[in-house]
Backbone:
Protein backbone atom coordinates (compact mmCIF):
# COMPACT_ATOMS: atom_id res chain seq x y z
CA UNK A 1 0.00 0.00 0.00
CA UNK A 2 2.83 2.39 0.82
CA UNK A 3 5.91 3.68 -0.99
CA UNK A 4 9.39 3.74 0.56
CA UNK A 5 10.37 6.87 2.49
CA UNK A 6 13.65 8.23 3.80
CA UNK A 7 12.52 7.31 7.29
CA UNK A 8 12.26 3.55 7.71
CA UNK A 9 10.41 4.18 10.96
CA UNK A 10 7.72 6.12 9.07
CA UNK A 11 7.41 3.19 6.66
CA UNK A 12 7.03 0.83 9.60
CA UNK A 13 4.32 2.99 11.14
CA UNK A 14 2.40 3.20 7.85
CA UNK A 15 2.65 -0.54 7.31
CA UNK A 16 1.58 -1.19 10.88
CA UNK A 17 -1.54 0.93 10.71
CA UNK A 18 -2.38 -0.44 7.24
CA UNK A 19 -2.18 -3.99 8.60
CA UNK A 20 -4.51 -3.02 11.43
CA UNK A 21 -7.04 -1.72 8.92
CA UNK A 22 -6.94 -5.03 7.05
CA UNK A 23 -7.37 -6.86 10.36
CA UNK A 24 -10.40 -4.72 11.13
CA UNK A 25 -11.75 -5.41 7.66
CA UNK A 26 -11.43 -9.14 8.23
CA UNK A 27 -13.27 -8.84 11.52
CA UNK A 28 -16.11 -6.90 9.90
CA UNK A 29 -16.30 -9.37 7.02
CA UNK A 30 -16.69 -12.15 9.58
CA UNK A 31 -19.54 -10.21 11.16
CA UNK A 32 -21.32 -9.98 7.81
CA UNK A 33 -20.89 -13.68 7.10
CA UNK A 34 -22.25 -14.59 10.53
CA UNK A 35 -25.16 -12.18 10.07
CA UNK A 36 -26.00 -13.74 6.68
CA UNK A 37 -25.83 -17.21 8.23
CA UNK A 38 -28.09 -16.07 11.08
CA UNK A 39 -30.54 -14.77 8.48
CA UNK A 40 -30.42 -17.85 6.29
CA UNK A 41 -30.93 -20.26 9.19
CA UNK A 42 -32.81 -17.93 11.54
CA UNK A 43 -30.14 -18.84 14.07
CA UNK A 44 -30.32 -16.76 17.26
CA UNK A 45 -26.93 -17.99 18.49
CA UNK A 46 -25.25 -16.83 15.27
CA UNK A 47 -26.95 -13.44 15.65
CA UNK A 48 -25.64 -13.21 19.20
CA UNK A 49 -22.09 -13.87 17.99
CA UNK A 50 -22.40 -10.98 15.54
CA UNK A 51 -23.41 -8.62 18.31
CA UNK A 52 -20.67 -9.87 20.62
CA UNK A 53 -18.06 -8.66 18.11
CA UNK A 54 -19.35 -5.07 18.10
CA UNK A 55 -17.27 -3.93 21.06
CA UNK A 56 -14.05 -5.32 19.53
CA UNK A 57 -14.76 -3.55 16.23
CA UNK A 58 -15.47 -0.24 17.96
CA UNK A 59 -12.35 -0.53 20.12
CA UNK A 60 -10.10 -1.28 17.14
CA UNK A 61 -11.56 1.63 15.18
CA UNK A 62 -10.71 4.00 18.05
CA UNK A 63 -7.20 2.56 18.39
CA UNK A 64 -6.45 3.00 14.69
CA UNK A 65 -7.78 6.56 14.78
CA UNK A 66 -5.54 7.30 17.76
CA UNK A 67 -2.50 5.87 15.98
CA UNK A 68 -3.25 7.91 12.85
CA UNK A 69 -3.52 11.11 14.88
CA UNK A 70 -0.16 10.35 16.47
CA UNK A 71 1.53 9.71 13.11
CA UNK A 72 0.15 12.91 11.60
CA UNK A 73 1.20 14.97 14.63
CA UNK A 74 4.73 13.56 14.74
CA UNK A 75 5.49 13.17 11.03
CA UNK A 76 3.54 16.08 9.58
CA UNK A 77 3.13 14.29 6.23
CA UNK A 78 2.25 16.12 3.05
CA UNK A 79 0.82 15.35 -0.41
CA UNK A 80 0.12 11.66 -1.07
CA UNK A 81 1.24 10.50 2.39
CA UNK A 82 -1.27 12.81 4.02
CA UNK A 83 -4.00 11.73 1.60
CA UNK A 84 -3.23 8.10 2.42
CA UNK A 85 -3.52 8.67 6.16
CA UNK A 86 -6.78 10.57 5.71
CA UNK A 87 -8.10 7.77 3.48
CA UNK A 88 -7.11 5.14 6.06
CA UNK A 89 -8.98 7.10 8.72
CA UNK A 90 -12.10 7.33 6.57
CA UNK A 91 -11.85 3.69 5.56
CA UNK A 92 -11.65 2.68 9.21
CA UNK A 93 -14.75 4.72 10.00
CA UNK A 94 -16.61 3.10 7.10
CA UNK A 95 -15.61 -0.38 8.28
CA UNK A 96 -16.93 0.40 11.73
CA UNK A 97 -20.23 1.45 10.15
CA UNK A 98 -20.36 -1.78 8.13
CA UNK A 99 -20.07 -3.55 11.46
CA UNK A 100 -23.02 -1.48 12.67
CA UNK A 101 -25.07 -2.65 9.69
CA UNK A 102 -24.18 -6.29 10.42
CA UNK A 103 -25.38 -5.73 13.97
CA UNK A 104 -28.63 -4.28 12.69
CA UNK A 105 -29.18 -7.41 10.62
CA UNK A 106 -28.42 -9.61 13.64
CA UNK A 107 -30.80 -7.65 15.86
CA UNK A 108 -33.56 -7.86 13.27
CA UNK A 109 -33.04 -11.62 12.90
CA UNK A 110 -33.41 -11.97 16.66
CA UNK A 111 -36.58 -9.87 16.55
CA UNK A 112 -38.02 -11.96 13.71
CA UNK A 113 -37.28 -15.19 15.58
CA UNK A 114 -38.87 -13.88 18.78
CA UNK A 115 -41.97 -12.73 16.86
CA UNK A 116 -42.47 -16.23 15.46
CA UNK A 117 -42.59 -15.03 11.84
CA UNK A 118 -39.30 -16.66 10.76
CA UNK A 119 -40.99 -19.52 8.91
CA UNK A 120 -43.10 -17.21 6.74
CA UNK A 121 -40.43 -14.65 5.86
CA UNK A 122 -39.21 -15.03 2.22
CA UNK A 123 -35.57 -14.11 2.75
CA UNK A 124 -33.80 -15.77 -0.21
CA UNK A 125 -33.40 -12.54 -2.21
CA UNK A 126 -32.04 -10.77 0.85
CA UNK A 127 -29.45 -13.49 1.39
CA UNK A 128 -28.28 -13.21 -2.21
CA UNK A 129 -27.98 -9.42 -1.87
CA UNK A 130 -26.03 -9.84 1.38
CA UNK A 131 -23.56 -12.17 -0.31
CA UNK A 132 -23.08 -9.60 -3.09
CA UNK A 133 -22.49 -6.81 -0.59
CA UNK A 134 -20.02 -8.92 1.37
CA UNK A 135 -18.14 -9.74 -1.83
CA UNK A 136 -18.01 -6.06 -2.74
CA UNK A 137 -16.47 -5.21 0.63
CA UNK A 138 -13.78 -7.86 0.12
CA UNK A 139 -12.98 -6.43 -3.33
CA UNK A 140 -12.80 -2.91 -1.86
CA UNK A 141 -10.37 -3.98 0.85
CA UNK A 142 -8.19 -5.86 -1.66
CA UNK A 143 -8.17 -2.83 -3.97
CA UNK A 144 -7.32 -0.50 -1.08
CA UNK A 145 -4.39 -2.70 -0.06
CA UNK A 146 -2.99 -2.34 -3.61
CA UNK A 147 -4.30 1.19 -4.24
CA UNK A 148 -5.73 -0.23 -7.46
CA UNK A 149 -7.74 2.46 -9.23
CA UNK A 150 -8.98 0.14 -11.99
CA UNK A 151 -10.45 -2.18 -9.37
CA UNK A 152 -11.92 0.86 -7.61
CA UNK A 153 -13.81 1.89 -10.74
CA UNK A 154 -15.13 -1.66 -11.13
CA UNK A 155 -16.40 -1.53 -7.53
CA UNK A 156 -18.19 1.77 -8.16
CA UNK A 157 -19.99 0.23 -11.13
CA UNK A 158 -20.91 -2.89 -9.17
CA UNK A 159 -22.39 -0.82 -6.35
CA UNK A 160 -24.61 0.96 -8.87
CA UNK A 161 -26.00 -2.46 -9.80
CA UNK A 162 -26.66 -3.29 -6.14
CA UNK A 163 -28.52 0.01 -5.77
CA UNK A 164 -30.70 -0.86 -8.78
CA UNK A 165 -31.47 -4.26 -7.26
CA UNK A 166 -32.45 -2.58 -4.00
CA UNK A 167 -34.79 -0.14 -5.77
CA UNK A 168 -36.44 -3.01 -7.62
CA UNK A 169 -36.82 -4.98 -4.40
CA UNK A 170 -38.46 -2.01 -2.67
CA UNK A 171 -40.98 -1.68 -5.51
CA UNK A 172 -41.75 -5.39 -5.20
CA UNK A 173 -42.34 -5.08 -1.45
CA UNK A 174 -44.65 -2.11 -1.94
CA UNK A 175 -46.66 -4.17 -4.42
CA UNK A 176 -46.90 -7.05 -1.93
CA UNK A 177 -48.13 -4.74 0.82
CA UNK A 178 -50.72 -3.10 -1.43
CA UNK A 179 -52.07 -6.43 -2.67
CA UNK A 180 -52.15 -8.12 0.73
CA UNK A 181 -52.03 -5.96 3.90
CA UNK A 182 -51.24 -9.10 5.89
CA UNK A 183 -47.72 -9.01 4.42
CA UNK A 184 -46.99 -5.51 5.75
CA UNK A 185 -45.19 -6.61 8.92
CA UNK A 186 -42.97 -9.17 7.17
CA UNK A 187 -42.34 -6.78 4.26
CA UNK A 188 -41.18 -4.04 6.62
CA UNK A 189 -38.78 -6.50 8.24
CA UNK A 190 -37.40 -7.33 4.80
CA UNK A 191 -37.11 -3.66 3.91
CA UNK A 192 -35.11 -3.00 7.07
CA UNK A 193 -32.75 -5.87 6.25
CA UNK A 194 -32.42 -4.81 2.61
CA UNK A 195 -31.54 -1.25 3.59
CA UNK A 196 -28.81 -2.44 5.96
CA UNK A 197 -27.34 -4.56 3.16
CA UNK A 198 -27.51 -1.67 0.70
CA UNK A 199 -25.59 0.48 3.16
CA UNK A 200 -22.81 -2.14 3.28
CA UNK A 201 -22.49 -1.69 -0.48
CA UNK A 202 -22.41 2.09 -0.04
CA UNK A 203 -19.54 1.87 2.46
CA UNK A 204 -17.63 -0.38 0.06
CA UNK A 205 -18.15 2.25 -2.62
CA UNK A 206 -16.79 4.90 -0.26
CA UNK A 207 -13.61 2.87 0.23
CA UNK A 208 -13.22 2.61 -3.55
CA UNK A 209 -13.55 6.40 -3.83
CA UNK A 210 -10.81 6.84 -1.21
CA UNK A 211 -8.44 4.81 -3.42
CA UNK A 212 -8.90 7.29 -6.26
CA UNK A 213 -8.44 10.16 -3.81
CA UNK A 214 -5.09 8.78 -2.62
CA UNK A 215 -3.71 8.02 -6.08
CA UNK A 216 -5.06 11.00 -8.03
CA UNK A 217 -5.78 13.55 -5.32
CA UNK A 218 -9.32 13.90 -6.65
CA UNK A 219 -12.53 13.79 -4.65
CA UNK A 220 -14.85 11.81 -6.92
CA UNK A 221 -17.92 11.80 -4.70
CA UNK A 222 -21.00 12.97 -6.60
CA UNK A 223 -19.03 12.58 -9.84
CA UNK A 224 -20.36 10.73 -12.87
CA UNK A 225 -18.71 7.49 -13.93
CA UNK A 226 -17.67 9.07 -17.23
CA UNK A 227 -15.85 11.87 -15.41
CA UNK A 228 -14.14 9.41 -13.05
CA UNK A 229 -12.89 7.25 -15.89
CA UNK A 230 -11.70 10.32 -17.78
CA UNK A 231 -9.77 11.55 -14.72
CA UNK A 232 -7.97 8.21 -14.44
CA UNK A 233 -6.80 8.10 -18.05
Residues:
Amino acid sequence: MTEKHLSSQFDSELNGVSSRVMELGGMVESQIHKAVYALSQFDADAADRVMETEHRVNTMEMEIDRDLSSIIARRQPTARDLRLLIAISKTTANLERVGDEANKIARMVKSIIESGSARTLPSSEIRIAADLASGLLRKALDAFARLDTAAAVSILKEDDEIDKEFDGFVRKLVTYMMEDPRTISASLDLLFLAKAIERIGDHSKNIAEFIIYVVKGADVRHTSMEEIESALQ
Notes: The chain is about 85% helix and 0% strand. Residues 133 and 201 are 5 Å apart (CA to CA). The longest helix spans residues 79-115.
